[in-house]
Design a protein that fits this description.
By secondary structure, this protein is mainly alpha-helical. The protein is built from twelve helices and seven strands. It is globular, with a radius of gyration of 23 Å.
Length: 331
């Protein structure tokens, strides 16, 4: 296992048992188990750093044995209110009193410097970074739950695609520390201007106009060129790749579509493939033998296909890649 923390709630054994038994769990339980594992790592690291009087072995065991949250255990061990993990603050760390461009810029500079400082401490010493590292360590088991459809289609859409994905991207996906330092330097030097949260883009007098819809001063910025510096969501139904388009037009591929409880359907934009072998599924639901699709074109059929697996967890994406290679060389 190397330097990974134990996974108690969304453990390898627990998920493998679900796969073997074809057992579906609720989306709420799935998200709870992710959060409990993250919180356990946070509190054990916190106790190690700030509560020398706590017996770490007993504390960790008590947390790992709980399936109803940790509040009572934290109370019993005297964990102060100020040290409690607050998911709402993690989701949106911008304080309520940040209401103009100047205060927002100052907040971001402080926040980024804290991010750099925490990164430099490493992922095994600070409670926050240790907890975020746990999110990365859970990736392979989250991927299994999605790949083998261990939660319902409705829960997958509501709990994972609409909520958890954005939280995970915000907390556990991002640039290395030196890139943050570079951004921070650009902000401090006045080269980079931050518009603010809830950014809006409109046109005015043949120019682009942008502003923050949250900040009270509504400071506006104008420009003749707008560069969208982000990656759009993968969508095989709306792309310019001639291979993907031809596969869909010829009926050799189909979009992975979820059937919801209310009778509606949800098109994910992913190419549909088999669970274990990553072979393409055609428009009639038949497997196209020895036609393998792996990675970004299957995003939302699989989970976080652009995220590199960490060492020591035997990631399911690498195992599928191994199976593809084995099938190719077996022919």
């Amino acid at each position: 296992m190397g330097e990974t923390f134990p996974r108690y709630f969304l453990s390898d054994q627990y998920v493998d048992d679900l796969v073997r038994q074809h057992q579906v769990i609720s989306g709420e339980e799935f998200i709870n188990r992710i959060q409990w594992d993250v919180e356990l790592t946070y509190y054990v690291t916190l106790a190690q750093n700030s509560y020398p009087e706590i017996d770490l072995t007993a504390f960790e065991a008590d947390l790992a044995a709980s399936t109803k949250g940790f509040k009572k255990i934290l109370d019993n061990y005297g964990i102060a209110a100020k040290d409690r993990l607050n998911w709402e603050e993690w989701k949106n760390p911008i304080p309520k009193d940040v209401n103009d461009a100047a205060s927002f810029t100052q907040f971001i500079k402080t926040y980024l410097q804290q991010d750099v400082d925490l990164a430099n401490e490493g992922n095994l010493t600070a409670p926050f970074t240790s907890a975020i590292e746990k999110l990365r360590e859970l990736r392979t088991n989250i991927r299994k739950v999605v790949t083998y459809r261990l939660i319902s289609a409705d829960d997958y859409v509501e709990q994972v695609l609409k909520h958890f994905n954005s939280l995970n991207s915000f907390l556990a996906v991002g640039p290395p520390a030196f890139r943050i330092e570079q951004i921070l330097a650009l902000i401090k030097s006045g080269i980079l201007t931050l518009i603010g949260p809830d950014m809006r883009v409109e046109t005015s007098d043949d120019q682009f106009m942008t502003y923050s819809n949250r900040l009270a001063d509504h400071q506006q910025y104008f420009g003749n060129v707008l560069i969208e510096g982000r990656l759009p969501q993968p969508n095989a139904a709306n792309n310019t790749n001639p291979l993907v388009n031809n596969l869909l037009q010829q009926g050799l591929a189909r979009i992975f579509t979820l059937q919801l409880r209310d009778g509606s359907s949800y098109q994910t934009g992913a190419l549909d493939v088999t669970d274990d072998t990553a072979e393409l599924i055609d428009q009639n639901g038949n497997v196209v033998p020895h036609f393998f699709v792996w990675g970004l074109p299957t995003e939302k059929r699989h989970w976080l296909t652009n995220g590199a697996p960490i060492p020591g967890v035997n990631d399911v994406r690498l195992r599928i890649a191994d199976r593809i290679a084995a099938q190719i060389f077996a022919k």
